[in-house]
Every structure is written in C-alpha cells, then in structure tokens.
Amino acid sequence: MVFHLGKNVSLLLLVVTSSTLAVFGQRPAAHRDWSDREFAPVPDTVSPRDDLIDQSYRLPTDTVPTHYTIRLHTDLHTGSRAFSGIVDIELDVVVPTDAITVHNRGLAIASAALYAKQEDGLLVEFGFPHYELDERTEQLTFHPGQILPVGTYVLTVEYSGTLQTSSNSGFFLKSYVNDDGERRYVGTTQFESTNARMAYPCYDEPLLKAAHTLWITHSGEYNAVSNMPVEEIVPSEEHEGYVTTKFGPTPKMSTYLLAFGVSDFVAIEDGNQQVYARPNAIDEAEFALEAGVKVLDALNEYTYVSYYDYMPKLSQMAIPDRGSGAMENWGLVKYGEPALLFNPARNTYRTRKGIAVVIAHELAHQWFGDLVGPHWWSYIWLNEGFANLFGYIAADLAYPSERYWDLYAVENVQNAFGPDASDSIRPMTQDATTPSAISGLFDSIAYDKSGSVLNMFRTVLGDDNFRAGLKVYFQNRQLDGAVADDLYAGLQAAIDGTDVLPEGYTVKQLMDTWTTEPGYPVLTVRRNYDDGSVILSQERFYSDKRSPNANVWYIPYSYSKASNPNFDELEHFRWLSSKAERVETGVAADEWIIFNKQQTGYYRVNYDAHNWLLIAKALQEDVSAIHRLNRAQLINDAFNLARVERHDMKLTLDLLRYLSNEREYVPWAAANGVLNYFYNKLRGTANYHDFIVYVDALIGPVFESLGDITTVPEDEALLDKYLKQLISTWACRIGYTECLRQTTEALHTAVETNTPVHPDVSYVVYCYGLKGATDEEYRWLFDQMISSGNEAERSVLIDALGCAQEQSQLISLLTVAIGSNSELNSLLPSERSRIVSSIYSAGRIGVEALIEALSDPLLAQEFVDRFGQGTLNSVVSNVASRTNNDVELQQLEQFLAALGDLVSPATAEAAVSTVKTNAAWFETYEGVLSTTYFADFTD
Q1: Phi, psi (rounded to 5 degrees) for 117
Q2: How far apart are CA 482 and CA 473, in angstroms?
C-alpha cells in the first residue's frame, strides 16, 4: 500500500513473505565480556589537591627513578599467557629513607636485591630487602632493613605475570587467523594511565620520568618492536629457537609511554617511519604511512620543534581486535585496525577521515604528552585537549583539499556542550588518585571541551603568537612535567609587548576562568534598535534548568553584521569580564548581528526575538550571507536554547526552514541532531505524519539535486560525500520512492553480479536496499561481512544488516551474535555486541525482533551467558527509549514479564519510567508547541 505526501514523499509499507533464515548456525557457549578500555594512569605535587580525594594512592617522594632495564621472556607465540621478567630500577634516594615504594598490579614477585651505585659505576650489594604489597593502593614497598643515605641505588626485582585477555590493558594478548587458516598471536601493550605496573614494577606516575632499556626474549619466528630501534637480535642461550631483541635506551619519559609488541607482523617503511600490521593486512597500511609522514612534517613545522631531535624513528602498529582506539607511545603509536588500516576498495570516506584525524591526534601527542607530559593527571587536558585540537589542524595541514577543519566545531565544540551543560560536570583541571578515578578523567571534558577552549585562545591570541608560545612551553618543560601555569607562561611570553590582550590582563587570568570552573556561559545579546547599542550579559548554561550562579568567564567576542559580513576576520576581540555591560555597535535597526564568528568561542549565543527573525529572513534570502560554520552554530544554539525555554521553539523550527537551500554539510550536521530529536519523539505517534511533511520540505530540494545516490563521481569532494549520506539517509528513512528504488536496485545488482557497491555509498544502499530484500540477498550481504578481513568494513556491514525489515532475518542475525560454529569463529566479541545494537538502532522492526527473540527463555538465557546481564539490561533500556505509544508499551511490559529475573528490577523500573517520560513530553510546553507547529505547517 502506498500513500503520498506532497510531491516527493511516498511511504512504502513493504509486505514480503520470507522463511526463517536457516543459514546461521547454532548457539551456546559463554564468552567473556568485551571491553575496549583505552586508558591507564600516573602522579604530582603542585597540582590542585582536593581534601576529599584519598592522597594515600600517591607514591612517597623520597626516591625517584632515573633508569629502568627490563628483560622480559614470553612464549606468547603458543598462545601462552605466562611471562616473566627482571627489572633493574636505577633510582636516587633524595631524602634518607628506610623504604622504597613502587607500583605493582598482578605481578608475582620472586626475589629482590638492592645495590648501591658508586661514582665509578660499580654496584655494591646492599642486601635482599623484604617486601609487601598494599593491594588497595597497588604500592609495593621494599624494606632494606636500614636507613638508605642520599645516593644512587639499583633495585633488581625478578617477577612473573599473566598477559591479559579480558581487557586491552597492561601487557595483553590478541590473535588473528592468517591466510593458511592458522591462529597467530600478538602480544601488545596499553599502559596509559596506570597499567605499566601490570608489566613491570615501576614508579607509575607521569612526573616520575626515567629512561627505559628493554630486552625481550621470544620465539625466533616472531619479531619485537618498541619505542626505540632494535640495537641487536641475538639467539637465546637458554631457550632453543628463541631470540632476544635488544632495544636502545629511550629518552627520559613517563612509564605509561613505554610500549612493545611481539608478533609475526611485517612493516612498510618511508624514511624513519614504519607501519606494522599482520601480513594479510599490510597492503592496507599505505595510507597510514603516507599520512604519518605528511602529518609529522606538518607538526614539525608548526611547533618549531623537530620530532627527530628527540626520537630516531616513528612506528605505527595496527592491532587486531583492539577496537578503534589508539595510544600515543613515544616512537611506537598503536591503533586498533579500523583506526589505521585503509583499503580504498573496501573502506568509506569516513574511515579515511577517521584515520587521518586519529593519526594527527596521536602524532600531536609526541609533543603534547610525550615531550612534555602532565605533572599529574589533573592536567590531562594538557595532553588530550591539544591532541584533540591538533588532530584536526594537522590533518587539515596534511590534506588541505579535504577541509577537515570544517568538521571541528560540529564534531567537538557542539559535542562538548552536551555533557558540559550538566550541573554535576567537572572542570578541566580536576584531581584524582585511584586508577578508576584517573581513567574517568579521560572524558569529553579532557578531549572535546579542552580542545575547544584551547582553540578559542589560539584564535584570540593569533595563530602565530600561539605557535611562538608553544615553542617557549616546549623549551621550558621538555622531558619534564607541566602544570597549566607553564602553558600560560609560554603563551604570555609570546604576546608580551603586544596589544593582543587588553592592558592589565594576563593569559593566566583569562584562561583560569575556563579551566578551573565547570560548565560554559551563554552570551545573551539584547539589542536597542533605536541607538544601535546592545546589552551583553552572561550566565552559566544548564541543559535542564535556569539557575542563578556566580560564575564570571572572561568571554572574548566579536561580531558580524549584515552590512559587513566579515566572518573571516578573526583578529580583533573584545572581552566581557563582568556579568553584563552595554556596548555600542552602530548596527542599523534593519540588519542582523551575529556574535562568535565561525564558532571559535566556547559559548552559546542568544539574541532577542527580533534579531533571530532577521537572521532567519537573511538565510531564506541568501544562504551564503552567513558563514557556513556560523549557520551550524545558529542551528545548534537555537535548538538548545529553545529546549531550556530561553526562547521559543517555533523560532528554531522557522530558522531551519532555510535548509531547503543549504548545500553545505556542516549546517546539515547540526540540523541532523535537531531532526533526530523530533523523529525519536514522534515516530509511532499520531503526530509523526506532520513531522514528515516538515522534513520533506527541508530535504526534498536537496535530495533532488543529488541525482544518483548509489554511485560516486571520481571528483566528489569529501564534505559532499558526507552531505549525500545524510540527506539520502533521511530520504530513505521517511520513504522517498526514488531513494528506495535506487537503493533496492543497487543492492539487487550487487547481488546478481556479486560485486559490492562503492564503499562510500555502501551503508545507505545496503541499509535501505534491504527494505524488500529476499533471504538470498540478505545472506549475500551477511557473507560479504563474514568473508571480509577488514574490521572497519565489517562494522559498516553489521550496521547495514541490522536494517532488515523482515523480523525473521533479524532474529537469525541475533542467533549469529549469540551462537557459535566454525563459520562464525571469525566474529570478534565486539562485533557480536555490535550486531545486537545494530538491530535495535535501525528502527522499530528491529526492536520488535529483539522482543520476539528474547521473550524465549532459552534464547534469553543464552544471550546472558554470551554477553552478561549488563548487556541485556542495556537492550531493555534501548527498547524502552524507542517505545512511543500504548501498543509498544504493552509489548515492553510483556517483554519484561517474559525476561523475569534475567533483568534487574531497577532496569525494569527505569524502562517503564522512560516510556512514561516519553509520553509525558507531549503535554509539556515544548511538546505542545512543537506538535502544534508541525500540524500548522502541514495545513
């Protein structure tokens, strides 16, 4: 049955008969939960201390390390998890003490010996200290039985440990299947933030830097790589068939930056750079090598500090089954395969962009974190904020034609605004001492907010001054720790004697208001249309309330106006340093004014209603009158300000009507968030039809301009690819006949010719082509996923498989995620979890397929055996958040009854509460206003 909405839209209800897919094998066998934890921690003394934070986790300060010599032995080529080691810790006693305390997690200590090091280098035995471990603080204390005078000592510790398989932390084990069908093993490391202590007893705090010399004994069939080049490889005297790979000493560095890998990987090389990957994926490493060279060259030039002044080589390594994260170890950067490997025949433009930006992020860390590290984890933003920012700056410098910088505000500034609008959010500078609390500091505040704030000051100070200030910062703190004041001092030195900042203002004074206080301001601009003045005021922006607060930020501002739309002029700023002030602008009453040019400032902007109307009118008349980054800012600000009733939602929805003329991706990316919000509220309700008419009016002309959405012109620009996917996704989602015709035909042709579609359009073609797919076509797509050796491609195909409109196909896919047979052994644990989320994320049909399948007690129990109760709780929460009417609520309640004790009572209660909240929205001011708007629009 087909019914029509306007000239563009027809919603198709496809009724397709289908037998259950009998293709996907049996189920059971429990499997470990998969976790992609990226980070692990270290300590300081000048940093902010919170009296409520337990400082007993910090190491004593009477001894400091200077050099580690680590000798490891591993049999990991057999799959064995056991390893052994000996570490010689050269240390200085700086205050006489009767104890030496280091960190240890999970290592069994076999023996310890202490030596005094004389001035001529001779070691004099100082006895065999006894030792004890405090498991709470993970502090291993050695007691020599006497007071150690000030001097240099060597503590030798023999120990053994176990490679991790249930987490990506410490020294851990991965594997892959080679082209001969053999399983091969990979030993690799992830020490940030507090996981070096899982591989060797050490002073596992970031300030306690030391040089590291590493030797690894391993199978001669495998090779080893580390931060430094190999000095020699010698046959093992004790183990036949084994070799010892010896690496040169590193510069002085934090323990969390030590890295090594043992595998049968091969490398490609360009000068002093290498990329390592498994032999059957090395042909996908070329882009990573090219990007590594280009990005490092760009950063060498930008920072005025050459990487090669400190390190002789830079290696990148792709780790299978590691997820999509990465780690910036000095000289040996490690990535999950999807973050490094690119196959142009298999991977999308998004994968390529992601690789370029993550490489730039990790290589920026070679300066921000490796050359100069944080004094303590409270300043982790000095690492991650800069890496977040330079991920885009350096990628943009390396590939200027791709316009990566256009994506920064919408992917970072606007992303940070969400969590940072909570009243329980932390400030950028925040102390923590326990490993779990330290890991918790690696959040959107450390990355997105900190990068955004740093970019604001880069813009205000000017890029040349910012670079000069960073050069001073590196010179002053190289091979050492830094606190925020060190950065401020460097930037201040670069602008002293200039008029960049108002007289009497310092970088520290201005930046402290952003780094030491949580949240961010909304700048309210109230115009006097008679005399051209404005009253500027500021208050903290909260996502759920309006609350008086005492925060005063130093807010840099500049503005453009209709008669002089100078959005590219970013040199001159004024400062709002009080709660409010009156400013002369000289803007005529009939022209718009827009603050925060290109959204370089980390704050929202609100206007009086008339100025909003002037902006909306200008956009309707000429999109190009306002900068594309400000168009994205206006959409994001207008919607979020309306959500907290700082102005009218009707104003926002009117503003968005200009989008029918918008051909730039970034404003559409901001709008996508708004449209998804209303789609999730209205789908499945009586108001949905009206909303679809509104969406049709916005996307119709843009979709018609795209032409064939299933092919990729050779000269198609990156941001045009982004726009095409966004618009065609909406067009197919709301039922455009032409969109569904093109995707269905393209999938049918791909199956008939056994030729995958172009990767850049693969998700839309496969997802929406499946709307009427036969079981044969569905099986073909599944086989494409199972046979692919590329993790990033497999993820895209899993997401597409979740789009099926036949419940039987989705239930069969779910049994794949739960079950196991020889065909499915190639599924990674993370891929099994992704299958589950792909099913409920693609639409209501998937939600109902999950309800149907998991209402079977046997299958539900197998699901819990495979994934754990936490994943089932997550499924229930996601089902609830996608429940929008009485019939769906009844299905949810029956589902909860069928699950019984398998789901926690708290989760069941929260699920029902979520649905009630969803329903109550329609009676809120926002709900009534929005649904009335869409109804009026349709009329």
Answers
A1: -100, 120
A2: 9
Asked, as a colleague might, if the bond just before 193 is cis with ω within 30 of 0, I would say yes
**620 SS3 class:** helix
Report d(CA 506, CA 509) in Å as an integer: 5
Q: Strand pairing of 139-143 and 130-134? A: antiparallel
CA 935 to chain centre: 39
- Spatial neighbors of 324 by CB under 8 A, at least 6 apart, are 36, 336, 338, 339, 354, 792
CB 698 within 8 Å of CB 657: yes
Task: Please give the full DSSP string across 275-325, using - where no structure is assigned.
Answer: EEE-GGGGGG-HHHHHHHHHHHHHHHHHHS--GGGT-S-EEEEEETTSTT-
Amino acid in position 490: G
CB atoms within 10 A of CB 522: 21
Which residue, 187, 172, 179, is CA-closest to 223? 187
Instruction: Count CB atoms within 10 A of the CB of residue 752.
Output: 10
Strands (E), 25-107: 63-74, 82-93, 100-103
Please report, as a single letter, which amino acid is at residue 521: P
**pLDDT tens digits, residue range 126-183?**
999 999 999 999 999 999 999 999 999 999 999 999 999 999 999 999 999 999 999 9
CB neighbourhood size of 576 (10 A): 20
Q: What is the mean pLDDT of residues 740-748?
A: 98
Dihedral sign from CA coordinates of 588, 590, 596, 598 = negative
Residue type at position 890: Q
Query: SS3 of 382, please?
Result: helix
Here the tokens at position 129 are 């200290």
Place of tokens 């708290």: 906
pTM: 0.93
Strand, coil or helix: what is 725? helix
624 CB neighbour count, 10 Å cutoff: 12
CB of 324 closer than 8 Å to CB of 793: no
Q: Of 467, 471, 312, which Cα lies nearest the Cα of 397?
A: 467
For residues 819 and 26, the answer to whether their CB atoms sit within 8 Å is yes
Residue-wise pLDDT for 669-709, tens only, equals: 999 999 999 999 999 999 999 999 999 999 999 999 999 99
Cβ contacts of 101 within 8 Å, gap of 6 or more: 59, 60, 63, 139, 140, 141, 142
Tokens representing 812? Answer: 């069969």
Q: Mind listing the pLDDT tens digit for each residue in 219-250?
A: 999 999 999 999 999 999 999 999 999 999 99
Count the neighbouring beta carbons within 10 Å of the beta carbon of residue 474: 18
Report the C-alpha gap between 325 and 320 in whole angstroms.
11
- Whether residue 677 contacts residue 664, with contact meaning beta carbons closer than 8 Å, is answered with no
Q: How many CA atoms lie within 13 A of 22 on its CB side?
A: 1
Interval 171-219: pLDDT, tens: 999 999 999 999 999 999 999 999 999 999 999 999 999 999 999 999 9
Length of the chain: 939
Residues identified as active-site: 362
Question: CA–CA separation, 260 vs 256, rounded Å?
Answer: 12
The vertex-111 CA angle with 109 and 113, nearest 5°, equals 130
H or E stretch covering 186: strand 183-190
**What residue ranges in 451-558 does DSSP mark as E strands?**
480-482, 521-527, 533-540, 555-557
CA distances from 896 to 724, 833, 889, 902 (A): 40, 21, 11, 9
Strands 480-482 and 372-374: parallel
Tell me the β-bridge partners of 141. Answer: 101, 132
- Cβ atoms of 23 and 779 within 8 Å: the answer is yes
Q: Is 58 exposed, middle or buried (0-12, 13-18, 19+ CB in 10 A)?
A: middle
d(CA 922, CA 620): 30
DSSP summary character for residue 404: G
